[in-house]
Design brief:
Distance between the termini: 45 Å
Order of helices and strands: HHHHHHHHHHHHHH
Radius of gyration: 25 Å
Structural class: mainly alpha
Shape: globular
């Protein structure tokens, strides 16, 4: 699979030689030429001399870095770094198609309409019946909160694990639509239930009146959104306008941690649990953190299965624990590393995060209108 990776750069990246593991300590002697007259053909005239930095996959084929980024300031050092993964958060207005984004807007409007009619609206949707079925298991808000999180986790991670097989059957775009069509309603229900019942649990501690706690929670929540998984930046793929892919990112936030979405979710959960301080918030955090810890393991497994030796190289020079690979020297930050964050997706995250904070009253009011 690794041979399918390609990097469309202005200049091709240098190649790296990675010998097969079994050949690291044992090499076979060269074979003598066959007896008799020997007339070398063009393909046999000399042994194939690979470039000094060619990286071989498990299938024995060259693996080039995938993704883009050499055309902007942050990508100038990509070739020198010998990346095997993609340049994350790369977004160039010149590469965008007006028709594709118009198509995306139409799809988004259709999805939101269908979500409201088929799931959210108590008169026509089945979301209320689904929540009633889950709520019938227990009168405890903590138990229901945890069950909703587990159901979402099983569906979301389960469908992610079956992605490769599912795409072979119905295609990449159809599977992405099916994946989003099932995951999105479950996520909305879980979020709305948390908003509506976040203060219904047993109060475990009360720190809202302590000076500096609000600022700490706000700053932690703000930072957590910068750990969004870079695939969420590819909105056209999320909506299946562009062909969805299983990406292997290597730049930007991935240099800090290989699983930024997990780290961001942990930060968000800890901040909100500290602020709310009750059993419902704790139950939600336990479910979400557990789901993302499993997702980190499952994501590594899927990438290793798809990209083989290329992912093993990326895994060796990154870390799950933030900054760990940087501290022990396995991750070498380029001098212009900061430029990998001066990109439109991160600017959009800043604006949306600030907007979401000030829109909290509106979000809460909308949630309270549902009998969830």
């Amino acid at each position: 699979m690794a041979s399918q990776l390609r990097l469309h750069l202005a200049a091709p990246p240098p190649l790296v030689l990675l010998p097969h593991r079994r050949s690291l300590h044992r090499r076979s002697p060269p074979r003598p030429p066959p007896p008799g007259p020997y007339l070398p053909s063009p393909a046999r005239a000399a042994p194939l001399l690979l470039p000094p930095r060619l990286r071989l996959s498990r299938a024995g084929r060259p693996v080039r870095a995938v993704g883009g980024g050499a055309e902007d300031g942050a990508g100038a050092g990509l070739a020198e770094a010998g990346l095997v993964g993609e340049d994350s958060a790369a977004f160039r207005l010149g590469d965008q198609s007006v028709a594709s984004w118009a198509y995306f807007a139409v799809i988004l409007a259709a999805v939101l309409w269908a979500l409201n009619v088929l799931w959210i609206d108590p008169g026509t949707g089945v979301g209320t019946k689904f929540l009633d079925a889950v709520g019938s298991v227990s009168d405890s808000h903590e138990v229901v909160m945890l069950l909703l999180t587990i159901i979402f986790a099983l569906v979301h991670s389960g469908m992610a694990s079956l992605r490769e097989s599912g795409e072979k059957i119905i295609g990449e775009r159809a599977y992405r639509v099916l994946f989003a069509g099932i995951s999105l309603p479950l996520a909305v229900t879980t979020i709305v239930y948390f908003i509506n019942h976040r203060y219904d649990g047993v109060q475990l501690w009360q720190v809202q009146g302590i000076t500096g706690v609000h600022e700490l929670v706000w700053l932690s929540s703000f930072i957590s959104f910068f750990f969004l998984y870079p695939s969420t930046f590819n909105l056209l793929e999320v909506a299946a306008v562009d062909k969805p892919k299983l990406h292997m990112w290597e730049t930007g936030i991935m240099r800090i941690t290989r699983h930024p979405q997990m780290v961001g979710q942990v930060i968000w959960c800890l901040a909100h649990t500290l602020w709310i301080g009750n059993s419902v918030a704790a139950a939600a955090s336990v479910g979400l953190i557990g789901h993302h810890l499993f997702g980190a393991w499952n994501g590594d497994r899927r990438l290793a299965s798809r990209y083989g030796e290329a992912f093993e190289v990326l895994k060796e020079r990154t870390s799950v624990v933030p900054f760990s690979a940087i501290i022990d020297g396995r991750q070498k930050l380029p001098k212009d590393y900061y430029k990998e964050f001066f990109r439109l997706p991160y600017i959009a995250i800043t604006a949306l995060t600030l907007g979401a904070y000030f829109a909290h009253p509106l979000m809460q009011a909308s949630s309270y209108q549902l009998p969830w």
